[in-house]
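Quick question, first post here. What does this chain look like in 3D?
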Amino acid sequence: MLSIILVVGILLFFLKIWLYWITQSNAILSDALESTVNVFAGAFALYSLILANKPSDKKHPYGHGKIEFLSASIEGALIIAAGLIIIVKSIYNFYNPAPIESLELGIIFTLLSGGVNLLMGLLLINRGKKVRSLLMRASGKHLMSDAYTSAGLIIGLVIIHFTDLLWLDGVVAIVFGGIIIYSGYQILSESIDGIMDGADFETLDKLVNHLQTVRKEDWIDIHKMRMIKYGTFLHFDCHVTVPRFYTIEEGHAVIDKIEEEIAATFNNQAEVFIHVDACIPASCKHCRMESCAVRAVPRTEDYFWKLDTVLENKKYGL
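> Answer (accepted):
Ran it through. Tokens below.
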């Protein structure tokens, strides 16, 4: 999908350069400069996606998925740079104005390019959500911001066409330059968070709710759950409390089942490391095992797994 979008992006870039050439509009130039970023970012994103899908090796035991965060960071930085260039160029033209020509043609083709970017952006964001790819979602958001910019650009050009207020061209370019910078900041912030292994509470909450639904009576407790993203691949680790009288084989069987549930939840794109803990007397009050020969006290409460408790580094109730 990214290869097709890259080709379309190159075609749109040349279209916008041609539109600027015939109109001399700063607003259209701002659109063309953002398309330049689209082309470079799209090319690097395509390379990064190919690299991210390479299998793990001895040097990269967790795979190559982190390249997606680097690629998204570069894309975010390029978007911010494009926005700054747009603003500087627009301010310069306030003092050195240039006539705007062929506005009708500019409006028609800007509408066309904006529609194409809107469609491609929606497709990329939808695909990125399905495969949990920050890179695809970042590229999709970038294209969506380009489409919004084109919409604002069209509004500005129409106003200029009917009012002959040429200074509006620079104002429109500055406003959407600011929007572009903010879009770049959002992408850069999210990618840096991924590089720093920031917690994805939405994904973790989805997993905890699923495990609670399929929970067995000897799954006494889960705690110290963590998750790291490697592109579309996820790594989970946690502690699981099992009955203290279980043999190694029985405890391992519990872990195997939990690992299977986690892997199935994320279409086998997840790796799981689980540390086994033995239950303690304090666990009895919420343990669901009916037949337990070592129970210290009767069960008095039902412990439902929730995100805030499974993230803590302690057994429930301690």
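The CA atoms of residues 175 and 288 lie 60 Å apart.
The chain has a mean pLDDT of 80.
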